[in-house]
Amino acid sequence: MTGLGALVRLALRRDRLLLLAWVVGLVGVTAVTASALHELYGTVESRGQLAATAGANPAFLAMLGPLHDASTVGGVLAWRWGVFAALLVGLMSAFLVTRHTRAEEETGRLELIGSAVVGRHAPLAAALVTAVVANALVGVLTALALIGLGEGVAGSLAFGAGLAAVGLVFAGAGAVAAQLPEGARTANALAGAVLGLAYLLRAVGDAAGEHGPTWLTWCSPLGWFEQLRPFAGNRWPVLALPVASAAALVVVAAVLVARRDLGGGLVPTRPGPARASRSTTGAFGLAWRLQRGVLLGWALGLLVLGAVYGAVARGVEEMLVDNPALRQVVDRLGGSGGVVDAYLASVLGIVALFAAAYAVQATLRARAEEVELRAEPVLATPVSRVAWLGGHVAVAVAGSVVVLAAAGLGAGLVHGLRVGDVGGQVVRLVGAALAHVPAVWVVAGLALALFALVPKLTAVSWAVLPAFLVLGQLGPLLRLDRWAMDLSPFTHVPRVPGAEVTAAPLLWLTLVAAVLVGVGLAGFRRRDVGQ
Question: What transmembrane ranges does the database entry give (predicted)?
Fold first, then answer.
């Protein structure tokens, strides 16, 4: 552990703005959501009507989890925002640890630091301490904000402690993931897969019903946050599960880091063939070879996610048929058509954000190639800058279509089987999913423009995704001005299925994406490689 204090100070200094944005964003959105819920569900009658329907329906259970107690606004907050807040805290924690471990090794900076008086475990410990500080700030400030808004002290503390504890679990998962592959991107992908698996297990377990595999909820850290039940009994012993799991993952990571070479991974990269095939020659072929595995993983993941959402779609109509007020809320969140269509439009909006995350990852693969000094040898050949970067952009653009189509296919197959119209629902929901393609392209174009013009700010591309999530999923609830919600490209997508499709917004989004791509390609031609 020699040098731990210096490394912690270095990590906090490097990430001071990034951590500030995460902490302020998470705490601020929680506080604003609680304030908005006070206005919408300020009476016992309104909360009782909500509890009688939303908390017992498979559709809302899969999306948000169970509504354990609607007697207070805090209980509604834990239901409406708790799962998403825990998911974002987990994302922050996992990526924070991989950033200060595997990414530092990949760039060679950790080897330089290790040549000084630094212990073998100190870098990993420093990353984990930084994650602990970030999660503690989120937990404490969230609890104080809720107490300041008049919520119960015990429930507020449980809510904040639950978020921090879930964050620690995913920090440990990120630490283990950082020991397995040789690349930071693969480590981030593994950590992201753990997050996605945790969400799916929770969704299936919550929506399973009395005779289904409800025990799956207990297999997910997000499910542990629900079982803690902030503002609904505050079951403090449940915190032992995430704390013990985080400790176990840290021990595993500490053992693994001592059993591998610096810069290497426990799962070494498989060497490629001695000669390249025709399909992998050229700029596009190289980009496809580098990214095809990631695309396959995202497509399979969204196929499963779409199937989970499609499995519970029919239950929405049963829940809302006798509740016009709640139907109006769902229409705001998802669309203006039928109740089931509104639900499907809402969940496809969430799926589109996952697709945008893929598009950002695929686009920024070019940045990883540049930072890791693999782009310069390629560009020293007759390959032009535009062709090299255009190959990665083409994979991101085409891959976005593939992952969205996979999500629509999964939802259409399962929902079609339940309503007896597989062919019709597949065509319908694949088309509805593909309607989000132009918005996803805008996000990819923004990432490309930042990479080309201000490469040091490429991380902002990831920061906009939580912002778009808040604007899209909580904008109507928070009663934001229209101009604020219009900052997200996803708010301009027709809420299909169910709403009338107009070509104008999709064409405008495509034009904006094309302009951003053009700016990015032109900007990359004019700046130094490796900047």
Answer: 17-37, 78-97, 124-147, 153-175, 187-205, 236-258, 294-312, 342-364, 385-409, 429-453, 460-478, 506-524
CB 73 within 8 A of CB 37: yes
Tokens linked to 216: 């799956």
**Strand, helix or coil at 494?**
coil
d(CA 18, CA 460): 9
Cα separations in angstroms, 218 against 79, 168, 215, 246, 356: 17, 17, 5, 15, 29
483 SS3 class:
helix
* 15, two tokens: 């990430």
CB 408 within 8 A of CB 304: no
Tell whether pTM > 0.85: no
**Which one, of 517, 359, 354, lies nearest residue 448 by Cα?**
517
Q: What region, left, alpha or beta, does residue 403 occupy, with left being phi > 0 and alpha being psi -120 to 50 degrees?
A: alpha
Q: Closest by alpha carbon to 14, among 103, 135, 83, 144?
A: 103
Both tokens assigned to 14: 């490097």
Report the residue count for the chain. Answer: 531
Tell me the C-alpha distance between 487 and 32, whole Å: 18
**Number of separate helices (H) and strands (E) present in the chain:** 24, 0
CB atoms within 10 A of CB 492: 17
Kindly state the tokens that stand for 442.
Answer: 């805008």
Phi-psi region of 420 (alpha: psi -120 to 50; beta: other; left: phi over 0): left
Range 415-421, long-range pairs (CB < 8 A, 24+ positions): 415/310, 415/311, 415/313, 415/314, 415/344, 418/310, 418/311, 418/313, 418/314, 419/314
Per-10-residue mean pLDDT of the chain, 531 residues long, equals: 89 88 89 86 82 67 82 90 92 92 86 84 93 96 94 95 96 94 84 89 81 85 94 94 96 92 80 75 86 88 86 66 56 54 83 91 88 85 90 94 94 88 90 93 93 85 80 70 83 84 90 94 87 72
Rounded CA separation 48/67 (Å): 11
Cα(457)–Cα(278) distance, integer angstroms: 36
Q: Which 3 state secondary structure label does DSSP give 132?
A: helix
What is the torsional sign of CA 217, 220, 222, 226? positive
Q: d(Cα 188, Cα 186) in Å, to the nearest integer?
A: 5
Q: Which residues contact 366 (CB under 8 A, 6 or more apart)?
A: 375, 388, 389, 392, 451
- 121/131 Cα distance (integer angstroms): 16
